[in-house]
Amino acid sequence: MRSETNKSTRFATLAKDIPAGLVVFLVALPLCLGISLASGAPLFAGIITGIIGGVVVSWLSGSQLSVSGPAAGLTVIVLNGIETLQTYEAFLLAVVLAGLLQLVLGFLKAGVIGLYFPSSVIRGMLAAIGLILILKQIPHFLGADEDFFGSLNFIQNDGKNTFSGITYAISAINLGAFIVGLVSLGILLLWDTPAFKRVKLFKFIPGALIVVLASVGINTLFLNFYPQLAISSSHLVNLPIISSFQDFGNELRLPDFASFTNPSVYVVAFTIAIVASLETLLSVEAVDKLDPHKRRTPTNRELKAQGIGNMLSGLIGGLPMTAVIVRSSANIVAGGETRLSSFVHGLFLLLSVVLMAGFLNQVPLSALAAVLLIVGFKLTKPALYKGQLKLGSEQFIPFIVTILAILFTDLLVGICVGLAVGVFYILKANYKSPYFYHKEEQRDKALIRIKLSEHVSFLNKASIVLTLDHMPANSHVLIDGGHSEFIDYDVLEAIQEFKQTAHERNITVEVRNVPEVMAMEVH
């Protein structure tokens, strides 16, 4: 009976993972190409990275739902790295070395860093990415942007920013692309209604697949009967055509191992490794929060998987990779259950360049923009903002600051700003609760009892020092550490200094269960 249950469970996840993998592929394809273009790398490089991220890293990683591939957050680093090292082949060597460094970080158990990011910042990152997806896809949805899928940064490569790009797009709508976008959006919204969800057949066919087929059909109709509405090639997917193994081999690049003696290679490698690792840890933390089953990703294993993936990618001509939140979110929204969906997306990327490039080059970008608009909305639903507001200002302010910082700068800078605000509120919370304070008025002098909490860290030092500094003169102060499991040295030193100087204000000090330390003298 148990084996039959396991088989039915595996079939159920398979039935969800394959359609989800197809949706992720449709989202990943233009992003892989767009990131290659924005990075100044060969167009095929992003596809190679996406294939390795899906086919290899999905099985090495411990995450069930994250998707790995080329990341928009690394675009500037890749562009500067290629310029610094002067050849793409030398840059590939830096990618290989970055992967090796990530592998070492994994063995050193550096993955724990990701656990120190506050939940409000992670949720802010997800909401910001949702808003960016919506704002960045509007020009493509209207068929009025030549900057492909561009960058997620506020300032775009074409000199426009997020909002001026939308303003320009509204004034330069391509009617044919707009019609395709509207039909595509309508199909996706219809597919998400309860009536369609009740039909078993529609559970196995992702709405994104219907969108692709319908968009190609509509544009073919335009070409044959309404040429004035036909969508130009600049607003269609643009894959390299590979008709033989020789063509495939010609698209691959090998690292320039002679560049081992170039010190700049190691600087670029270190930069890629650190930024890619941080982006990966943030992404898997966010994915774990979105996972309906609340599974936890082993972060050290993830660093090792990313390291091996980057080494392979660099060896055959690919861009550096990270776990990427946009594709991972699309995976979850599409109903992915296990790592098989990421693997399927990698297989589809491989098949797309080998077998389907001709067909995929007919897909309008406005149709794919509609898919991303839906993904973006689900990441930044109004309910998320209401939920954070109910949690109070200490959660809501870092959340909003993270969103605004990411919107107006870029992903990594925005996260750092949000993290700084989040840490401020953490310090403020620690400032409030390191001890219990009670004052009793007695006949001759006031008795003040300070009971230290279970864990008193250096973060609590400021609060305790200020409290001791404001002890009233002519009082008796009792400091009790009987309930404390840990008291940081900095706090012990502050208590010792207060004990030594309290007599100057006629304060008597009684200390219980608090270890004595020698206060350090500074000369």
Automatic annotation (TrEMBL):
Pfam families: Sulfate_transp. The keyword Membrane applies. It comes from the Bacteria. It is found in: Membrane. The chain crosses the membrane at residues 20-37, 43-60, 65-82, 88-108, 115-135, 166-191, 203-226, 265-287, 308-326, 346-375, 396-427. Its main location: membrane. Keywords: Membrane, Transmembrane, Transmembrane helix. Residues 14-386 form the SLC26A/SulP transporter domain. It is a multi-pass membrane protein. InterPro entries: SLC26A/SulP_dom, SLC26A/SulP_fam. The keyword Transmembrane helix applies. This is SulP family inorganic anion transporter.
